[in-house]
Amino acid sequence: MNIFADFTARIIKAVEALDLKDNDGVSPDLSRIAVEPPRDASHGDLATNAAMVLAKPTGQNPRALAERLAQALRDDKDVAATEVAGPGFVNLRLKDGFWQTHLTALLGEGRNYGRSTVGGGRKTNVEYVSANPTGPMHVGHCRGAVVGDALANLMAFAGYDVTKEYVINDAGSQIDVLGRSAFLRYREALGDDIGEIPAGLYPGDYLVPVGQALVTEFGRSLLQMPDDEALAIVKDRTIDAMMAMIREDLAMLNVHHDVFFSERTLHADNAKKIRSAINDLTLKGHIYKGKLPPPKGEKPDDWEDREQTLFRSTAVGDDMDRALVKSDGSFTYFAADVAYLKDKVDRGFVDLIYVLGADHGGYVKRLEALARAIAGEELKLTVLLCQLVKLFRDGEPVRMSKRSGDFVTLREVVEEVGRDAIRFMMLYRKNDAPLDFDFAKVTEQSKDNP
Asked: What's the total number of domains in the chain?
């Protein structure tokens, strides 16, 4: 039982018995009545603002109304005492027998205490983390992982049919960079002197074992293959190795996904899924040929001064229409987003939740517009943006760039401060507020440790 909801209902019943009316003889709106713990525990077990929110619409003095309500609530079988505080709050002290009864019920339900069916089994997809498979997890990924996982767990506990999803971004240009970086480590494992890793590639030592594994599996044969064929093999093996590492890193945080969705499946069979999704939007009148006006300020990656295939996203709430096909005939990143969102709808999800980094704020309107175009109001889409985590060590900020190879891995942080401390800190502030992660504060035994 939800004690606060239960006593809210009791207080509303007591208010209704007072037969309050506004100047027009109409009963006031009771939806703003709240019940919560008092700020000072010595004031009682529960407090309500009922008299405060009802005084003005009914033309009464809030303290006088609070006295009437307090008197009425004293007749409740579970209320030991009531008192009026401040401008019109009513504090309640509950009888010992009430707590004994409910503590017994709590212990009896064990880990199921608080479980509800409010979600009604609604199919809900929570996509979170989805870090590029270009290296191990760093602490910057951690916040989205914990926020998304905690939200998914809470929704499942509340009766939603939740699927935790991770999209593997294995179709972008960063994967070509990853493949070339791993191929260098393969040559190094064969004994070649590769010198310094060229600028633009991933220099991290985490690719050294990948190169060694390639030698174990292929010997020198990759050097004898055409470059494209060898690179395709290296990319596949490297993505597998990186995702295995990422899964292990997430498991250290007790984060486990139900589905790992490969972006490459959208581009398979001549991009069949992307073409199908665009065709569906075309039939609904959302696709047209046209030119985008020059954008003000910084130009987005998909803007080109030419006629192109466009999604009419401004008609469904976006601030600009979106390009779907590049000048070379390949599809834009947004075109893959179209197919991916449609794939989720085709799988029967009616609630879609995206947990993204704050740098993806520009995606919110386009995703919302896309959801309206594909499924109308039947689909509920929510985007949570997680602000950056700034990591400090010895008072100095720590860089977290995979390209530089100089970053603190999530594994290192978990091993140093522990899983539970990290999960707590990532939820300590709202997801849209910046967060400083101070090693000293998190590990010290003092009142300054949150």
From this structure: 2
Please, what is the end-to-end C-alpha distance for the chain in angstroms? 30
CATH number for the domain including 53? 3.30.1360.70
Asked if residue 213 is part of any domain, the answer here is yes
Q: In the numeric block, which tokens belong to residue 266?
A: 């959208």
CA R_g for the chain: 29
Domain around 230: 173-252
Domain boundary among 65, 80, 98: 98
Between CA 129 and CA 214 the distance in angstroms is 28
- Give the number of other Cβ atoms within 10 Å of residue 36's Cβ: 12
d(C-alpha 56, C-alpha 202), whole Å = 65
Residue 33 lies in a domain: yes
Per the domain annotation, does 16 fall within a domain? Answer: yes
Tens place of pLDDT for every residue, the chain, 450 residues?
789 999 999 999 999 999 898 877 888 999 999 999 998 999 999 999 999 999 999 999 999 999 999 999 999 999 999 999 999 999 999 999 999 998 998 899 888 988 999 999 999 999 999 999 998 888 778 999 999 999 999 999 999 999 999 999 999 899 999 999 999 999 999 999 999 999 999 988 999 999 999 999 999 999 999 999 999 999 999 999 999 999 999 999 999 999 999 999 999 999 999 999 999 999 999 999 998 887 776 666 656 778 899 999 999 999 999 999 988 889 999 999 999 999 999 999 999 999 999 988 989 999 999 999 999 989 999 999 999 888 777 667 766 554 444 567 889 889 988 999 899 989 989 999 988 887 766 666 655 565
* Distance of alpha carbon 175 from alpha carbon 169, whole angstroms: 8
